[in-house]
Amino acid sequence: MKGGPIHRAAKGYAAFERIIAWLLLVGMAGVIVLATANFLRAVVETALGYNAGWNYSTFQALFDGILAAVIALELAHSVQQMAEGQKGLVQVRTVILIGVLAVVRKLIVLEIEDTTGAFLTGLGVAVLALGAVYALILWVEGKVAPEPPHAPGEREDE
Question: Helical H runs in the chain?
């Protein structure tokens, strides 16, 4: 039965999910603004010489700020997809991309002297696994997506 209690409950939950997603998106906008402001403050302080100088740790901190803002943007994009009711591979691809960015961020801020080989191996395996899943998703999307129509007079075998 299409209008039964289970169907109504599912529609109600979908509406609830979208409302929460929109509220989270508003919160994410605040996080993105704060991350960007923090990054810009660090750039200005570095450029004006308030920080210790132009050493590797300064650049690590700056790149950490950039990646924090980019990860927040991607997370907001994922929440936006949820708010708009998009499901499936599009949302999974965004989550995998966030994972890749998080691992890259960890690699950039990593203090190599304080790191074990096992930890580095784990990060390497995580990068390979995330990359493989991302490539698989792109391959599946390419197989599922309809081919664009050919222009008039264009042969298919060209």
Answer: 5-47, 56-83, 89-109, 117-144
CB atoms within 10 A of CB 108: 15
Q: Are 20 and 85 in contact (CB under 8 A)?
A: no
Q: Can you give the pLDDT of all 158 residues of the chain as single tens digits?
A: 466 778 788 788 888 888 888 899 899 899 889 988 988 988 888 888 766 566 777 778 888 888 888 888 888 888 888 788 777 778 888 888 888 888 888 888 888 888 898 998 998 899 899 999 989 988 888 876 665 555 555 555 54
Whether the model pTM is above 0.90:
no
Instruction: Please check whether residue 103 is in contact with residue 126, taking contact to mean a CB–CB distance below 8 angstroms.
Output: yes
* Whole-number Å distance between alpha carbons of 35 and 28: 10
Two tokens at 139? 């391959």
Calpha distance 16→82 (Å, rounded): 11
Residue 149 DSSP label: P
Give dist(CA 79, CA 84) in Å, integer.
Answer: 9
For residues 64 and 107, the answer to whether their CB atoms sit within 8 Å is: no
